[in-house]
Write a sequence for this structure.
């Protein structure tokens, strides 16, 4: 795939064209070319997969949260069988790993991590941010979650219990942030606009209702 | 490892403290810790075997387990850790 | 405790401040990600994602600490493709050499 190919979407990825290719860029090209030549993968498959993954963004998750906030039946199903619930919104998640919704409540705040690598609900939220995959986050969130959240600008009330959820196995987690006050009667689209990626990981809250 | 799960929700369990042989999804910081089974998450192929290109059978029951959080000073805090632990890494806690 | 802490198993260590900067992924990163997803998908089934994780866990401490995230995955998938006899070390080295020579002489 030439770096000069056009992309239809607005945001082109950063081109790698600055300066000579490094050894890993060369290795990637070598492996990719060999896999294509041997028929293991095709260039079209790779491009489709890139587009498929780029199409998964936190907006998908935000829509799920907004519906959970406004539709009690959906909310109940989300807590019972999250994969089936989001499938009804047209979001298909592969069978494994399984998806579980974690509901923040008065006095209980969830934050998700993968201390062993970088497991994340990517088919719902897109790829995780670099900090989620960083050694510092993975190491410290189970050691001192309150100070990690403070680094994200999040100070919870003294008596709030923080539940750190370590994605060690075949389950992936979506945090349902608390619905901001003053949003009664808001439609789902407007509500979804308050749901940040970080609020669905647990390193932030949903945005407050604007004036 | 049988088909029937060894533990029910509410069971007090202890995470095994043994040296992993190869790939392991039971983190070091939880080994030897006591916890409470919150729920059963289904049965999955053994990741240690999948990591070696083996089928990973028989499937293992996966448990969602809650642990007290131990802070920097070595004392438990009001916070909690939850992790997903395969049955072959859990024992009954005394 | 009986068991020891593996190099990648860092939960609970006090590792310092978190770098929260973000950048859009580069084409290189997008490609590495796409290739590993495709190789571990049921349709291709070259190996499982568990094998990829295991391959990373077998890195030296130096490599684990210093290789950027996507290059860890790239190295791991390369190692596994060789382990599973999908590609050979020789043909990868030959292609790397050819591409390197091409880059040195200009396109």
């Amino acid at each position: 795939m030439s770096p000069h190919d056009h992309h239809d979407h607005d945001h082109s990825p950063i081109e790698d064209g600055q300066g000579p290719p490094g050894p890993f860029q060369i290795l990637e090209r070598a492996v990719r070319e060999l896999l294509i030549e041997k028929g293991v993968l095709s260039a079209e498959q790779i491009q489709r997969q890139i587009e498929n993954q780029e199409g998964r963004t936190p907006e998908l998750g935000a829509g799920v949260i907004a519906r959970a906030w406004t539709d009690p039946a959906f909310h109940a199903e989300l807590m019972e069988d999250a994969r089936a619930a989001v499938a009804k919104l047209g979001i298909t998640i592969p069978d494994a790993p399984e998806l579980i919704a974690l509901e923040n409540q008065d006095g209980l705040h969830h934050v998700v991590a993968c201390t062993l690598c970088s497991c994340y609900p990517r088919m719902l939220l897109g790829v995780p941010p670099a900090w989620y995959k960083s050694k510092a986050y993975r190491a410290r969130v189970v050691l001192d979650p309150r100070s990690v959240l403070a680094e994200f600008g999040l100070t919870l009330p003294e008596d709030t219990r923080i539940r750190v959820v370590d994605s060690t196995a075949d389950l992936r987690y979506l945090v349902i942030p608390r619905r901001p006050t003053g949003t009664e009667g808001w439609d789902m689209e407007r509500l979804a606009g308050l749901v940040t990626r970080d609020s669905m990981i647990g390193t932030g809250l949903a945005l407050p209702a604007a004036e | 490892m049988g088909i029937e799960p060894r533990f029910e929700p509410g069971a007090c369990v202890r995470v095994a403290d043994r040296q992993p042989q190869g790939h392991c999804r039971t983190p070091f910081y939880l080994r030897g810790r006591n916890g409470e089974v919150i729920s059963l998450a289904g049965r999955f192929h053994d990741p240690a075997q999948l990591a070696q290109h083996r089928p990973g059978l028989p499937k293992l029951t996966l448990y969602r387990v809650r642990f007290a959080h131990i802070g920097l000073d070595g004392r438990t805090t009001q916070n909690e850790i939850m992790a997903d632990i395969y049955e072959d890494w859990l024992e009954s806690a005394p | 405790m009986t068991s020891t802490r593996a190099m990648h198993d860092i939960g609970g260590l006090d590792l310092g401040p978190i770098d929260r900067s973000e950048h859009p992924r580069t084409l290189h990163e997008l490609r590495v990600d796409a290739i590993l997803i495709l190789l571990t998908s049921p349709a291709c089934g070259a190996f499982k994602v568990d094998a990829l994780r295991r391959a990373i866990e077998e890195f030296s401490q130096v490599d684990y600490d210093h290789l950027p995230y996507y290059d860890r995955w790239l190295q791991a998938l390369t190692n596994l493709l060789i382990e599973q006899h999908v590609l050979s070390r020789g043909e990868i080295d030959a292609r790397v050499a050819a591409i390197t020579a091409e880059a040195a002489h200009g396109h």
Observations:
- The mean pLDDT of chain C is 95.
- Chain C touches chain A through 52 residues (CB under 8 Å).
- Chain C has five helices and no strands.
- The longest helix of chain C spans residues 89-104.
